[in-house]
Amino acid sequence: MEKKINIGIVGAQFMGRAHTNAWYDVANFFDLPFKPVLKAACDLDPRAESSFARRYGWESFETSWEDLVKREDIDIIDICTPNNTHMPISVAAARNGKHVICEKPAAMDARETLSMYEEAEKAGIKHMIAFNYRRVPAIALAKEMIMEGKLGKIFHFNAVYYQDWLVDPEFPWVWRHDAGLAGSGAHGDMNAHTVDLARFLVGEIDSVCGEERVFIPERKIPGSDKTGKVTADDATSFLARFREGASGNFIATRFASGKKNFLRLEVFGSKGSITFNLERMNELEYYSREDTSTEQGFRNIIVTESSHPYLNKWWPPGHIIGWEHTFIHEIGDFLLAIANDEKISPDFFDGHRNQLILDAVMKSAKDKQWVTVPE
Amino acid sequence: MEKKINIGIVGAQFMGRAHTNAWYDVANFFDLPFKPVLKAACDLDPRAESSFARRYGWESFETSWEDLVKREDIDIIDICTPNNTHMPISVAAARNGKHVICEKPAAMDARETLSMYEEAEKAGIKHMIAFNYRRVPAIALAKEMIMEGKLGKIFHFNAVYYQDWLVDPEFPWVWRHDAGLAGSGAHGDMNAHTVDLARFLVGEIDSVCGEERVFIPERKIPGSDKTGKVTADDATSFLARFREGASGNFIATRFASGKKNFLRLEVFGSKGSITFNLERMNELEYYSREDTSTEQGFRNIIVTESSHPYLNKWWPPGHIIGWEHTFIHEIGDFLLAIANDEKISPDFFDGHRNQLILDAVMKSAKDKQWVTVPE
Amino acid sequence: MEKKINIGIVGAQFMGRAHTNAWYDVANFFDLPFKPVLKAACDLDPRAESSFARRYGWESFETSWEDLVKREDIDIIDICTPNNTHMPISVAAARNGKHVICEKPAAMDARETLSMYEEAEKAGIKHMIAFNYRRVPAIALAKEMIMEGKLGKIFHFNAVYYQDWLVDPEFPWVWRHDAGLAGSGAHGDMNAHTVDLARFLVGEIDSVCGEERVFIPERKIPGSDKTGKVTADDATSFLARFREGASGNFIATRFASGKKNFLRLEVFGSKGSITFNLERMNELEYYSREDTSTEQGFRNIIVTESSHPYLNKWWPPGHIIGWEHTFIHEIGDFLLAIANDEKISPDFFDGHRNQLILDAVMKSAKDKQWVTVPE
Amino acid sequence: MEKKINIGIVGAQFMGRAHTNAWYDVANFFDLPFKPVLKAACDLDPRAESSFARRYGWESFETSWEDLVKREDIDIIDICTPNNTHMPISVAAARNGKHVICEKPAAMDARETLSMYEEAEKAGIKHMIAFNYRRVPAIALAKEMIMEGKLGKIFHFNAVYYQDWLVDPEFPWVWRHDAGLAGSGAHGDMNAHTVDLARFLVGEIDSVCGEERVFIPERKIPGSDKTGKVTADDATSFLARFREGASGNFIATRFASGKKNFLRLEVFGSKGSITFNLERMNELEYYSREDTSTEQGFRNIIVTESSHPYLNKWWPPGHIIGWEHTFIHEIGDFLLAIANDEKISPDFFDGHRNQLILDAVMKSAKDKQWVTVPE
Question: How many interface pairs between A and B have CB atoms less than 8 angstroms apart?
Fold first, then answer.
């Protein structure tokens, strides 16, 4: 592993740290033809605290992403900033010939995601949206099983994503509460994930009908005696119809007291079913209608066998992995795609399709009726 | 318990048997001022097999419900027939001064349920819709806790009702598949239950938007080489908005492979949350935001203590009860309401409100847009 | 069902009520050639409250069991009294030619159980010990699966039976705390059940080594300012070796805070495993080493299909039954064994073998070493 | 973090890799006054494959541990070799003034562990046994709660450790099957962990009575047509009595089909209870007898809050960590203890006490009677 590949990261908050950890660890678990080097980091706010960036040993710091994307010694740009900057940074990076991995949701709306996609393709770079849950081993196993026909024809894809950090009315107003700055709230943050998993596991969505809710319409602005208006959704639910005929139901909320990061999938098919819960992400529930009739039941598969996706890189059976490992899988696969000049998924096209669906839900919520997702 | 009260039942199929079992057992568990007597049974089909009716010792058999409701020795009419007969039987029974307990859904549409309610009130009888799940002890406990404010303001009421008996394409065409005869399929059968629980636990629903699905559009007609058209829904999902502001999400399907009678409630509030699953009906999950912060978690309450609703009638802690017991609770409470001349719930008004919501969902599914539930 | 069979019951407390309920209901669910008649009841204490006996309609009341067992109109004696009376009542009943069903544990020690067995055999009557958990459908299914070789060779049988009703130090002294009167405490009450299930599912036990514990050595005597000494065990654990080579581990305790009636079995074999929990008695967990390797996992079988043991008598799939139903199964099978003059199990021989094991554990606890169970 | 601390590791197999990963990552998550440097690695077999050691960047390789422990540039020796080498390596390391962290079980018997402890104390070094499960956050939380008196007086500590990798009779004979080389099998490997947790959570054990089992007495020697004799236990169970009066029950087996790395604790006390399962190591079940009586139940605490032990170093609530993180916690705390010259636990004294208990169990299994653990 003499060869190196140089990484530049933008965004030094929570997601920046999760990605950094993955860049730091990935070569210890994936067989790669080059070693990723933590070359340069920057944040939108040049004064931003980035103790973790120093700690992990990023070699240099830039004060603007515009400078970062132009650096000749950088091969990959990793975008971990708020949604409204994804498009400009990724387009600039692509135009400078950098490979790009970008946090989700892809951007603010489908116009932006389309331009991201088109520019990336034109530049011939590798591009990826960091929908990391595709690379939870249990989800990757579910995908394999669905591809093998284990579920037969899919009737239902029901997904919830529950968190509870906004239940507290004292939680302050932040930019995320402003629809103008954030695009949306729970919808873009959480439904973006479950919509990606829906497309991954079941296929394209044809039409949707949704509802957005704000439960606490004003919150205190920190360091002030004023309140800010909450315009980004606290919760968004929607019904969906998949192209192949399945029925979809999605709920995303930050008002589910007691649920911390609870993402549940239920996929019901003509031959069997699969359910999954992110808080127990090392497990997959599988029901087969082909088991002996008196012995049918949902199996709790502990997805830690070396024969399961990604698990040959980790520990013996029953020794579970955590949330952060999904980023190592994602970044490992991204590096392999670059090395082998292969297509990686989910890419910017997936990000764009995802955004078209999210946009359609928001339109349907406004119009109080079903909306067809554009082709 | 010298006094007697005489029961006449219409409908000698599955639900007739469950009700009969409750009439047979109830006086052993409830302190009642009179003993119910299994006086007379009949079925819509005079030739119907009713081995269980003989076995349980119904004293006499009528060949028509019209005769039954006129018998002077009958005090209570119990209606366990298909939906399209609920209205005429209950109206006739009321006009003859009988108390009436009627299976759900209340009737075919809100016009029918309204007349049922008005006639019953005019006759001054006691009337009940057999939404038995209100009397699952865990649900009754949830109601108590919500009334005491344990959940605070409710944000979400999410309910699913999953069964899988129609997944098999060889399952034959029966009258239940005809929307004209059955009113609806999964919707009237299953959403009727969860809508009742929603009204019971959270309150009235203001508006809805739903989708109906038929996954297998034709099925073989038994004893024939023809197929019948399936017009009643295999699955119906809908979004809802409650009057008090909560957001609702309902799914009913008979196409959830592996789920036999899986009714899950998730109620999220500002102070806590409750979840419930009918397949583990002796348990209630409760999360309190007021527990010590490092020790918060969903509690698995085994609802078998003598201090829990209805449990003082049964066995020691940890000795679970089954599905049929909910009918004993329902019929016991109905008899007590008659004895004490008190209001019973859910009554025909609840059945009517329930039907208004079901009808609104069906209209919204047709119109592809939100519909306001009539006042 | 013109023919009748007449029942006499001794013991009008908790277990008497559970048995009465089963006699009252059984003919509604089992196809029997005669109808059980609740002929006569008595209690050891002639003044005993027996409101439930009147309520269920026992036709007559005796003041002594000695009189009851001699009555010519009685066919079956059902013994629901404390352990120290099981032997004399059952022997007297047998000598009078009555069939006998007797609560567990069979008696006070193996000398007693042997005489019960020998007298019953000499009299040629049907005899049964009411180890009702054999007839939990999930346990009966486990038995079928083990008989079919689904688990292969058994390595481990681990059983716990946890309750918590003695944790409260204010719980008063009662006769059950006196080893002289009760024989033992948790051991005879709870290990008796799990030992029966061990013999049922895995086979005879060869040797044991146990420990008895009393955690609260004195308790207040009600209506007095004195305390009574607790000599019956609060908890008993033991290791066991089965004849066929499996290793056993048993724990019974009334000091497991939060566990109400928690009986867990774990049976590990060379081809698969089974686990069971009485608080979720409608479920059986099954793991097969023969499932496809990447899809192995414990299956949660909802044991409510009509193809499952006993379930064709009850309700549709997913509609669970409760604890009391096990008595209906037991009494139904007992009546069928009488009708068909067939062997019933568990009989007094099983009760005797069970007692030999319980006695060996108590001896090992006293001697602090392993004890071989007599042949 | 200019200062460095140099690590030398012995043992380049599975545990060596888990420790290496922790040394590699620890400074990114713990605030340390020095940065650990992966200075030198060696294996017992100088030809051993150690691809991971190269991959993680160990700076140099030694061919003998005797050389390694003498190197002046090494501050800490990390011992990840088989049990029979723990004593000589750790003693040599201590005599050379190195701090030592050593895998469990501490050594082959209590004579060895005593000398390890005495030599380490004499040398004044920091010493630790790598019982990593003390630093599962849920276990650390349990410890805090027990210390605060949340469970009251402890009645029961029941622990099982189930794996299934030896069920396959084709699994070959390896040195671990030889009691002479390995000391013991499941006992030293798995009961060592649960005994450590017992001492950590409940206190010292006074006496024990156990049973060892070998289920498959011969296995094929790889690359040969001979079989080797299995003398190390496949499973060991034992009863225990704690000094403070609690009753203990331990089962360790590698023959529990379907259980991969299933370590379950159940701790029952006078005020409450705690249960834990390593396969869901981010969760802790807690029951409080002080909750409102109708609302008591086991709480499922998702141990991922920043207020929970170690979690402020990781990710937001609900984002779970994995098995490997326990090593990071352990090594982080070890480095802090060195930095602050504080006592670390579990140290070699804990390893010695642990071994005394393991030895007593083995003696009791041989003598078929209870054995008192030496003071």
Answer: 124
Which tokens in the block code for residue D73?
């540039």
pLDDT of residue A49: 58
CA angle B151, B152, B155 (to 5 degrees): 85
Is-contact A73 A96, C-beta < 8 A?
Answer: no
Question: What is the distance between the alpha carbons of residues B269 and A24, in angstroms, rounded to a whole number?
Answer: 41
Domains C4-132 and C134-345+353-367 share a fold: no
Name chain B's partners: 3 or more CB pairs within 8 A. Answer: A, C, D
Model pLDDT, residue B337: 98
Q: For the stretch B67-95, what's the b/e string if a residue is b when 16 or more beta carbons lie within 10 angstroms of its beta carbon?
A: ebbebeebbbbbbbbbbebbbbbbbbbbe
C-alpha distance from C262 to closest chain B C-alpha (Å): 7
For residues A9-27, average pLDDT:
94
Domain ranges for chain C: 4-132, 134-345+353-367
Nearest to D258 among C235, C259, C273 (CB): C273
- Topology of the domain covering C134-345+353-367: Dihydrodipicolinate Reductase; domain 2 (3.30.360)
Task: State yes or no: pLDDT of B49 exceeds 70.
Answer: no
Residues 6+ positions from C227 with CB-CB distance below 8 Å:
C173, C218, C219, C220, C221
Name the residue among C287, C369, C370 with its Cβ closest to that of D258.
C287
Tell me the C-alpha distance between A276 and A265, whole Å.
5
What is the mean pLDDT of the segment spanning B225-244?
A: 97
Among residues A230, A241, A214, A110, the alpha carbon closest in space to that of A180 is found at A230
Superfamily of domain D136-345+353-367: Dihydrodipicolinate Reductase; domain 2 (3.30.360.10)
Rounded-to-integer distance, Cα C197 and Cα C11, Å: 25
Reply yes or no on whether the pLDDT at A96 is more than 70: yes
D interface with C, Cβ–Cβ below 8 Å: 155-156, 158, 160, 162, 164, 167, 169, 209-211, 213, 215, 235, 237-239, 241, 245, 247, 249, 251, 253, 255-259, 266, 268-273, 287, 289, 296-298, 368-370
> What rounded mean pLDDT belongs to chain C?
96
By the 8 A CB rule, do A196 and A350 touch? yes
For the beta carbon of residue B244, count every other beta carbon within 10 angstroms: 11
Read off the tokens for A186. Answer: 């729970």
pLDDT of A344-357, one tens digit each? 999 999 999 999 99
CA separation for the pair A226, A366 (Å, rounded): 28
For chain C, which residues score pLDDT lower than 50?
none
Q: Encode pLDDT of B99-137 as tens digits.
A: 999 999 999 999 999 999 999 999 999 999 999 999 999
Instruction: Assign domain C4-132 to its CATH architecture.
Output: 3-Layer(aba) Sandwich (3.40)
Interface of C with A (CB under 8 A): 141, 144-145, 284-286, 288, 291, 293-302, 305, 307-308
User: Would you call D315 and A302 a contact, using CB atoms and an 8 Å cutoff?
Assistant: no
Quote the pLDDT of residue D46: 72
Amino acid symbol at D279: E
Residues of D with CB under 8 A from a CB of A: 1, 14, 18, 21, 24-25, 27-28, 52, 55-56, 163, 165, 259-262, 278-282, 302, 304-305, 314-325
The number of beta carbons lying within 10 Å of the beta carbon of residue B340 is 10
Structure ipTM = 0.96
Q: Give the pLDDT confidence of A228-265 residue by residue, as tens digits.
A: 999 999 999 999 999 999 999 999 999 999 999 999 99
Q: How far is A239 from chain C (nearest CA, A)?
A: 27
Interface residue ranges in chain B relative to chain D, Cβ cutoff 8 Å = 141, 144-145, 284-286, 288, 291, 293-302, 305, 307-308
Q: Could you give the CA distance from residue B363 to residue B206 in angstroms, rounded to a whole number?
A: 14
Do residue A296 and residue C291 have CB atoms under 8 angstroms apart?
no
